[in-house]
Amino acid sequence: MGHIDFLSSVHKSTKRDYLARVNEFPKAQAATLAKKFDLDYWDGSRQTGYGGYKYDGRWRSVAEDIAKHYNLKAGDSVLDVGCGKGFLLYELGQAVPGLELAGIDISEYAIENAKAEVRGNLKVASAAKLPYPDKSFDLIISITTLHNLYCFDLFKALKEIERVGKKNKYICVEAYRNEEEKVNLLYWQLTCEMFCTPEEWDWWFEHTGYTGDYSYIYFE
Fold first, then answer.
1. Whole-angstrom Cα distance, residue 205 to residue 159?
2. The pTM is what?
3. Cα–Cα distance for residue pair 205/220, rounded to 1 Å
4. How far apart are CA 78 and CA 59, in angstroms?
5. Domain at 8-38+69-217, CATH homologous superfamily
6. Which residue among 57, 148, 159, 200 sits deepest, i.e. has the most Cβ atoms within 10 Å of its Cβ?
7. Cα R_g (the chain), whole angstroms
8. CA-to-CA distance for 6 and 22, rounded, in angstroms?
9. CA distances from 125 to 108, 167, 190, 220 (A)
10. pLDDT (tens digit per residue) in 117-139
11. 10: closest CA among 144, 177, 148, 149?
12. CA atoms within 13 A on the CB side of 216
Protein backbone atom coordinates (compact mmCIF):
# COMPACT_ATOMS: atom_id res chain seq x y z
CA MET A 1 0.00 0.00 0.00
CA GLY A 2 1.41 3.37 -0.96
CA HIS A 3 0.59 7.02 -1.48
CA ILE A 4 0.27 7.91 -5.18
CA ASP A 5 -1.12 11.22 -6.38
CA PHE A 6 -3.03 11.11 -9.68
CA LEU A 7 -5.59 13.81 -8.87
CA SER A 8 -3.99 17.03 -7.64
CA SER A 9 -3.73 18.64 -11.07
CA VAL A 10 -7.46 18.16 -11.71
CA HIS A 11 -8.47 19.20 -8.20
CA LYS A 12 -6.34 22.35 -8.18
CA SER A 13 -7.57 23.47 -11.59
CA THR A 14 -10.89 24.54 -10.00
CA LYS A 15 -11.06 28.00 -8.43
CA ARG A 16 -13.08 28.03 -5.21
CA ASP A 17 -14.67 30.90 -3.30
CA TYR A 18 -15.33 29.25 0.05
CA LEU A 19 -17.21 32.15 1.62
CA ALA A 20 -19.51 32.51 -1.37
CA ARG A 21 -20.31 28.81 -1.07
CA VAL A 22 -21.94 29.36 2.31
CA ASN A 23 -23.26 32.91 1.86
CA GLU A 24 -24.96 32.87 -1.55
CA PHE A 25 -27.31 29.90 -1.02
CA PRO A 26 -28.52 28.15 2.16
CA LYS A 27 -25.93 25.44 2.75
CA ALA A 28 -28.30 23.00 4.42
CA GLN A 29 -30.72 23.26 1.49
CA ALA A 30 -27.89 22.81 -1.00
CA ALA A 31 -26.61 19.71 0.78
CA THR A 32 -30.11 18.24 1.00
CA LEU A 33 -30.52 18.58 -2.77
CA ALA A 34 -27.01 17.35 -3.52
CA LYS A 35 -27.36 14.19 -1.44
CA LYS A 36 -30.15 12.98 -3.70
CA PHE A 37 -27.43 12.59 -6.37
CA ASP A 38 -29.98 13.52 -9.00
CA LEU A 39 -30.20 16.29 -11.59
CA ASP A 40 -29.54 19.07 -9.05
CA TYR A 41 -26.22 17.50 -8.11
CA TRP A 42 -24.90 16.62 -11.55
CA ASP A 43 -26.47 19.12 -13.95
CA GLY A 44 -28.18 21.76 -11.86
CA SER A 45 -26.73 24.90 -10.30
CA ARG A 46 -23.11 25.08 -9.17
CA GLN A 47 -24.56 25.86 -5.74
CA THR A 48 -25.98 22.33 -5.44
CA GLY A 49 -23.26 20.35 -7.21
CA TYR A 50 -21.16 20.29 -10.34
CA GLY A 51 -23.16 22.92 -12.17
CA GLY A 52 -23.30 20.72 -15.26
CA TYR A 53 -21.04 17.67 -15.32
CA LYS A 54 -20.26 17.32 -19.02
CA TYR A 55 -17.53 15.40 -20.78
CA ASP A 56 -14.60 17.74 -21.41
CA GLY A 57 -11.55 15.48 -21.51
CA ARG A 58 -10.31 16.52 -18.05
CA TRP A 59 -9.81 12.88 -17.04
CA ARG A 60 -7.56 11.93 -19.97
CA SER A 61 -4.23 12.65 -18.24
CA VAL A 62 -5.41 10.93 -15.04
CA ALA A 63 -6.40 7.83 -17.02
CA GLU A 64 -3.06 7.77 -18.82
CA ASP A 65 -1.16 8.06 -15.54
CA ILE A 66 -3.21 5.27 -13.94
CA ALA A 67 -2.79 3.01 -16.98
CA LYS A 68 0.96 3.56 -17.01
CA HIS A 69 1.45 3.11 -13.27
CA TYR A 70 -0.52 -0.15 -13.11
CA ASN A 71 0.78 -1.39 -16.48
CA LEU A 72 -2.72 -1.98 -17.79
CA LYS A 73 -3.08 -4.02 -20.96
CA ALA A 74 -5.86 -5.31 -23.19
CA GLY A 75 -7.91 -7.91 -21.38
CA ASP A 76 -7.35 -6.48 -17.90
CA SER A 77 -10.50 -5.76 -15.90
CA VAL A 78 -11.11 -2.42 -14.16
CA LEU A 79 -13.90 -1.43 -11.76
CA ASP A 80 -14.67 2.19 -10.87
CA VAL A 81 -16.50 2.43 -7.52
CA GLY A 82 -18.47 5.68 -7.68
CA CYS A 83 -18.08 6.03 -11.43
CA GLY A 84 -20.55 8.90 -11.90
CA LYS A 85 -21.15 9.36 -15.62
CA GLY A 86 -18.27 7.06 -16.53
CA PHE A 87 -15.91 9.69 -17.93
CA LEU A 88 -12.78 8.24 -16.30
CA LEU A 89 -13.68 4.72 -17.42
CA TYR A 90 -14.15 6.01 -20.95
CA GLU A 91 -10.72 7.63 -20.87
CA LEU A 92 -9.13 4.44 -19.55
CA GLY A 93 -10.67 2.58 -22.46
CA GLN A 94 -9.20 5.14 -24.85
CA ALA A 95 -5.78 4.93 -23.20
CA VAL A 96 -5.76 1.12 -23.28
CA PRO A 97 -8.09 -0.34 -25.92
CA GLY A 98 -9.39 -3.75 -24.96
CA LEU A 99 -9.82 -3.21 -21.24
CA GLU A 100 -12.81 -4.86 -19.60
CA LEU A 101 -14.52 -1.90 -17.94
CA ALA A 102 -17.14 -1.84 -15.18
CA GLY A 103 -18.52 0.85 -12.92
CA ILE A 104 -21.05 1.29 -10.13
CA ASP A 105 -22.69 4.37 -8.70
CA ILE A 106 -25.51 5.00 -6.24
CA SER A 107 -26.97 7.59 -8.62
CA GLU A 108 -29.54 6.36 -11.12
CA TYR A 109 -29.36 9.77 -12.81
CA ALA A 110 -25.60 9.47 -13.37
CA ILE A 111 -25.89 5.99 -14.89
CA GLU A 112 -28.80 7.00 -17.12
CA ASN A 113 -26.82 10.02 -18.35
CA ALA A 114 -23.44 8.33 -18.56
CA LYS A 115 -21.18 8.52 -21.60
CA ALA A 116 -22.81 6.37 -24.25
CA GLU A 117 -19.67 4.38 -25.02
CA VAL A 118 -19.50 2.93 -21.48
CA ARG A 119 -23.10 3.17 -20.27
CA GLY A 120 -23.71 -0.53 -20.85
CA ASN A 121 -20.85 -1.39 -18.50
CA LEU A 122 -22.29 0.55 -15.54
CA LYS A 123 -24.67 -0.47 -12.76
CA VAL A 124 -26.63 1.28 -10.03
CA ALA A 125 -25.24 -0.20 -6.82
CA SER A 126 -23.78 0.65 -3.44
CA ALA A 127 -20.07 0.63 -2.68
CA ALA A 128 -20.99 -1.19 0.53
CA LYS A 129 -22.33 -4.16 -1.45
CA LEU A 130 -20.55 -4.65 -4.75
CA PRO A 131 -22.48 -6.94 -7.15
CA TYR A 132 -19.44 -8.97 -8.27
CA PRO A 133 -17.79 -12.26 -7.27
CA ASP A 134 -14.56 -12.45 -5.29
CA LYS A 135 -11.34 -11.50 -7.12
CA SER A 136 -13.15 -10.17 -10.19
CA PHE A 137 -10.94 -7.20 -11.14
CA ASP A 138 -7.28 -6.56 -11.91
CA LEU A 139 -7.67 -2.92 -10.80
CA ILE A 140 -10.27 -1.17 -8.67
CA ILE A 141 -10.39 2.63 -8.49
CA SER A 142 -12.55 4.91 -6.38
CA ILE A 143 -12.18 8.65 -6.90
CA THR A 144 -13.64 11.14 -4.38
CA THR A 145 -16.47 8.80 -3.41
CA LEU A 146 -15.84 6.91 -0.18
CA HIS A 147 -15.82 10.02 2.01
CA ASN A 148 -19.53 10.36 1.14
CA LEU A 149 -20.34 7.23 3.16
CA TYR A 150 -21.20 6.99 6.82
CA CYS A 151 -18.56 5.13 8.83
CA PHE A 152 -20.46 1.81 8.92
CA ASP A 153 -20.82 1.79 5.12
CA LEU A 154 -17.24 2.97 4.64
CA PHE A 155 -16.10 -0.06 6.61
CA LYS A 156 -18.17 -2.35 4.37
CA ALA A 157 -17.01 -0.60 1.18
CA LEU A 158 -13.31 -0.98 1.97
CA LYS A 159 -13.92 -4.65 2.76
CA GLU A 160 -15.84 -5.07 -0.50
CA ILE A 161 -13.05 -3.46 -2.55
CA GLU A 162 -10.62 -5.93 -1.03
CA ARG A 163 -12.99 -8.81 -1.73
CA VAL A 164 -13.58 -8.18 -5.44
CA GLY A 165 -10.05 -7.01 -6.23
CA LYS A 166 -7.27 -9.34 -7.32
CA LYS A 167 -4.33 -7.09 -6.52
CA ASN A 168 -4.25 -3.42 -7.49
CA LYS A 169 -6.55 -0.83 -5.94
CA TYR A 170 -6.47 2.95 -5.78
CA ILE A 171 -8.62 5.23 -3.62
CA CYS A 172 -8.71 9.03 -3.51
CA VAL A 173 -10.61 10.75 -0.70
CA GLU A 174 -10.94 14.22 0.80
CA ALA A 175 -8.96 15.02 3.93
CA TYR A 176 -7.62 17.93 5.96
CA ARG A 177 -4.29 18.63 7.69
CA ASN A 178 -5.08 21.75 9.70
CA GLU A 179 -7.98 23.90 10.86
CA GLU A 180 -7.99 26.10 7.76
CA GLU A 181 -8.31 23.10 5.45
CA LYS A 182 -11.01 21.62 7.70
CA VAL A 183 -13.07 24.81 7.56
CA ASN A 184 -12.61 25.09 3.79
CA LEU A 185 -13.73 21.47 3.40
CA LEU A 186 -16.78 22.10 5.57
CA TYR A 187 -17.65 25.21 3.57
CA TRP A 188 -17.17 23.62 0.16
CA GLN A 189 -18.45 20.07 0.49
CA LEU A 190 -22.08 19.13 -0.13
CA THR A 191 -22.10 15.35 0.31
CA CYS A 192 -19.18 14.45 2.60
CA GLU A 193 -19.89 12.37 5.72
CA MET A 194 -16.36 11.28 6.71
CA PHE A 195 -14.26 14.27 7.77
CA CYS A 196 -10.85 12.74 8.42
CA THR A 197 -7.19 13.65 8.68
CA PRO A 198 -4.69 11.52 6.74
CA GLU A 199 -3.86 9.74 9.99
CA GLU A 200 -7.51 8.85 10.50
CA TRP A 201 -7.78 7.55 6.96
CA ASP A 202 -4.69 5.42 7.59
CA TRP A 203 -6.50 4.03 10.63
CA TRP A 204 -9.50 3.07 8.51
CA PHE A 205 -7.29 1.38 5.92
CA GLU A 206 -5.46 -0.60 8.58
CA HIS A 207 -8.59 -1.70 10.44
CA THR A 208 -10.42 -2.82 7.31
CA GLY A 209 -7.43 -4.62 5.81
CA TYR A 210 -7.27 -2.36 2.78
CA THR A 211 -4.05 -3.18 0.88
CA GLY A 212 -4.28 -0.82 -2.11
CA ASP A 213 -2.85 2.59 -2.92
CA TYR A 214 -4.39 5.91 -1.93
CA SER A 215 -4.16 9.68 -2.09
CA TYR A 216 -5.84 12.66 -0.47
CA ILE A 217 -7.14 15.95 -1.81
CA TYR A 218 -7.07 19.03 0.34
CA PHE A 219 -9.00 22.30 0.23
CA GLU A 220 -6.13 24.72 0.68
1. 9
2. 0.96
3. 24
4. 16
5. Vaccinia Virus protein VP39 (3.40.50.150)
6. 148
7. 17
8. 29
9. 9, 22, 21, 32
10. 999 999 999 999 999 999 999 99
11. 144
12. 18
Position 59 scores a pLDDT of 96
CB neighbour list of residue 126: distance below 8 Å, 6 or more residues apart: 104, 106, 153, 157
Helix 60-69 and helix 87-95: axis angle, to 10°? 60
The answer to whether residues 150 and 193 touch, using CB atoms and an 8 Å cutoff, is yes
36-55: pLDDT as tens digits: 999 999 999 999 999 999 99
Q: Residue 156: is its pLDDT beyond 80?
A: yes
How high does pLDDT run on average in the chain?
A: 97
Q: Is the pLDDT of residue 1 over 80?
A: no
191-200 pLDDT, tens digit each:
999 999 999 9
Residue closest to 191 by CA, chosen among 45, 30, 46: 30
Q: Can you tell me the mean pLDDT for 57-83?
A: 97
The string of DSSP letters for the chain reads: --B--SSHHHHHTS---HHHHHHSS-HHHHHHHHTT-SHHHHHS-GGGSSSS----STTHHHHHHHHHHTT--TT-EEEEET-TTSHHHHHHHHHSTT-EEEEEES-HHHHHTS-HHHHTTEEE-BTTB-SS-TT-EEEEEEES-GGGS-HHHHHHHHHHHHHHEEEEEEEEEE--SSHHHHHHHHHH-SS------HHHHHHHHHHHT--SEEEEE---
